[in-house]
Amino acid sequence: MLVPDRKAVRELLTRYASLRIAQAERHVPTAARELEDVSYTLCVMMGTSVIHDAIAKADTLLLTKGRSEAAEADGENGLTLVG
Predict the structure, then answer these.
(1) What pLDDT sits at residue 64?
(2) Which of 17, 27, 63, 80 has its CA 20 to 30 A from that of 70?
(3) How does pLDDT run across 14-57, given as a tens digit for each residue?
(4) How far apart are CA 60 and CA 21, in angstroms?
């Protein structure tokens, strides 16, 4: 299974949040179109058809990947002692 690039996912989430805030403050047609584009891209990248699912999957990807990278930096291999 292909895993999306964390940096690209983070950038899309940031752009999505910025556009949502901008649209909440004042509706602008060009920003609305860009929000649609970013939403679509996030959905495709995360393999979903609903933006809320894409955001949840993106958050999980970033959190999970971040934890395993931190564990590797600490010398852990990601295995637990609890069975």
Answers:
(1) 87
(2) 17
(3) 999 999 999 999 999 999 999 999 999 999 999 999 999 999 99
(4) 22
Residues shown for the chain: 83
Assign 5 to helix, strand or coil: coil
- With 0-12 / 13-18 / 19 or more C-beta atoms within 10 angstroms meaning exposed / middle / buried, residue 48 is middle
Alpha carbon dihedral 7, 20, 35, 1, in 10-degree steps, equals: 40
- Asked whether the beta carbons of 78 and 71 are under 8 A apart, the reply is yes
Global pTM reads 0.75
CA dist 57 and 1 (Å) reads 14
9/4 Cα distance (integer angstroms): 7
Sole residue written with tokens 């292909």: 2
CA distance 56 to 36: 17
